[in-house]
Amino acid sequence: MVTILTLSIGHDFCKALQDCLQSKRLYAGRHGYTYTEGGETYWDRNRPIPWSKVPFVLSELSKLPDGALLWLSDADVLITNPALSIEEHILPYFPATKDMLMTVDSCGHLNSGNMFMRNSLWLRDFWRRVGEQTDLLYHIWWENAAIIKLLEQNPMDLKHVEITSDHTRFNSYLQGLPGKKLWCPSDFLVHFAGVYDLERIQTLVGVIRLGKIPRLSLKDTRKISYISINEL
Questions:
Q1: CA 191 to chain centre
Q2: Of 21, 77, 88, 219, which is most buried, counting CB atoms within 10 Å of its CB?
Q3: Span 112-142, pLDDT tens digits
């Protein structure tokens, strides 16, 4: 059984991203997965909202047996190829000896926006320690920065994590460094990382569903261009 976790707090936020959220609900239903949306129950009002992933994840881990498979996916993620199952598309790249699977994204950073996990004593302890990195509360990458810090400082933690540079497998972007692969229509999903304007995300979802292939400027994600399928 696979459990999909997405933190989504705030009426306006959820409304703006309803197409993204619904794409995961439908995906979970199609494949028989459990989809759980974390709302205000998990909102730690003493921290920026992204940090509320920590109590959300810990709560869900506490309910599941060791070895349970989870996919933690940000709210700004749209499933674009729902035919791809996690068993066939992801598990062959997630060694049984590892507890987390993460990508180095098209911008060259380790990104927690889409990550796969196996429930374990180490995983629960790791997420507890992520929440303890209070020096990073206002870092622009929030809990992602805490994850990077722990993996850089603790070799034993790093041994539990599989890191892949095959980012388009489950963390495709519309922008990236020169030469990096970006989202195409056959990809599993598109993650609107770095796009902080919710209306712009809605626009991007709309054009993608019309069959267009948008591209964003790495320097200014407000700038949208388009390519043809022949340019992929």
A1: 7
A2: 77
A3: 999 999 999 999 999 999 999 999 999 999 9
Give the number of C-alpha atoms closer than 13 A to the C-alpha of residue 199, restricted to the C-beta side.
1
Task: Give me the long-range contacts of 33-36 (CB less than 8 A, separation at least 24).
Answer: 33/1, 33/2, 33/3, 33/4, 33/86, 34/1, 34/2, 34/3, 34/4, 35/3, 35/4, 35/6, 36/3, 36/4, 36/5, 36/6, 36/60
Cα atoms in the Cβ-side hemisphere of radius 13 Å centred on 129: 14
Query: Rounded CA gap, 129 and 146, in Å?
Result: 9
- Left (φ > 0), alpha (ψ -120 to 50) or beta: where does 8 sit? beta
Q: Can you tell me the distance from the alpha carbon of 192 to that of 203, in angstroms, rounded to the nearest whole number? A: 11
Specify the pTM.
0.97
CATH 3.90.550.10 assigned to 2-169: yes
* pLDDT tens track for 27-77: 999 999 999 999 999 999 999 999 999 999 999 999 999 999 999 999 999
In whole angstroms, how far apart are CA 20 and each of 78, 108, 192? 4, 24, 10
pLDDT digits (tens, 9 = 90+) for 139-191: 999 999 999 999 999 999 999 999 999 999 999 999 999 999 999 999 999 99
